[in-house]
Amino acid sequence: MHWASILIVAGLCGVSLGQYEDEEDMYWLHQYLRSQALSYNYMPYYEDEAPPYPYVSPGSSFAEPILEPVSRECPQECDCPPNFSTALYCDSRNLRYLPFVPSRMKYVYFQNNQITSVQEGAFDNATTLEWIALHGNQITSEKMGKRVFARLKNLERLYLDNNNLTKMPSPLPRSLRELHLAYNQITRIPSNALEGLENLTALYLSHNQIHDIGASFKGLKSLILVDLSYNHLRKVPDGLPSSLEQLYLEHNYIYTIPDEYFKVSPKLLYIRLSHNSLTNDGLSSNTFNTSSILELDLSYNRLQKIPRVSTNLENLYLQGNQINEFSISSFCTVIDVMNFSKLQVLRLDGNEIQRNAVPPDAPLCLRRAAVIEI
């Protein structure tokens, strides 16, 4: 199991497999040569996706390509480690099409190629797949099969980052735990795009062009992390799941947050809202006064006052705003031996506060602070 974990990570990171012992080398060579004797009749779905590995026999008087046989045990374009027989490594090989996937595979790595499509039925031969890595390609929504992932009842991780998608892939299997769609061109998330994904724990949608979320999070009772940074959102998403722990919304155009918006997520620990358009007028007095939050990033907005926060907050980033006063009541409503803030890091640099504006009771309230930058 230990080696299996290492091989999985190696495949995702694009790292080549290490050398084998002598006996394993011989076994690998034997298996590889044996595989060349087998073939299959898989044909690309699109005419412009012919395999880029033509073979012309020596002495031929014509240039018509002859395709080499490809094994059902392991496609010749890829590697299938003998000591990890359920993994197929086809990454970083200038592929323009998806090779045949043997039925025994659980982990397939097609990242960093030039693949433009995922045709309908591409994975019908390997319905027990758990991981699919397709990031770093040129896949478009128009050339993705409408139900290409629907039959994969064991799929847990789907990597589609760094492609040319303009729409959310749908439908997706209920087994999915991680969905990676960052660095695409998605503009909106339909309310039913994530329907039924009760096991989804992480959703990565940063660096898209999303301007509308709607009620997409409804029913996602296992969701822990949402990354919607670097998009075009003007408001926060509706209906955060109660399971949520990490929310990343930096580099959007959000200007207001509803009262007690974060109360519905009692496990929320980390919030990033930097580089938005927040003002004090767009916040209620208790917007961020939630006891679960440990880290809050509100840097580079348009705040003129320090918003009230919970005494449990440990890291608060407010640099690059327009704050002109140090209000200790934002951190402590009562100051005595038993009541104080647990804040450890406070950044107020790049505001309009003078260093001598720190109130005299600040050390008693902020007694745990190791870093205060003004």
TrEMBL record:
Q: Which GO terms describe its biological process?
A: collagen fibril organization
Localisation per UniProt entry: Secreted, Extracellular space, Extracellular matrix
Q: Which residues form the LRRNT domain?
A: 73-107
> Mind naming one GO cellular-component term on file for this protein?
extracellular space
Source organism, top-level taxon: Eukaryota
Q: Which first-to-last residue range defines the signal peptide?
A: 1-18
- Could you tell me the keywords of this UniProt record? Disulfide bond, Extracellular matrix, Glycoprotein, Leucine-rich repeat, Proteoglycan, Pyrrolidone carboxylic acid, Repeat, Secreted, Signal, Sulfation
- InterPro entries (UniProt xref): Leu-rich_rpt, Leu-rich_rpt_typical-subtyp, LRR_dom_sf, LRRNT, SLRP
Q: How does it assemble?
A: Binds to type I and type II collagen.
Q: Which family does it belong to?
A: Belongs to the small leucine-rich proteoglycan (SLRP) family. SLRP class II subfamily.
PANTHER family, alphabetized: AGAP008170-PA, FIBROMODULIN
Functional summary from the UniProt entry: Affects the rate of fibrils formation. May have a primary role in collagen fibrillogenesis.
What name does UniProt use for this protein? Fibromodulin
Q: Which gene encodes it?
A: FMOD
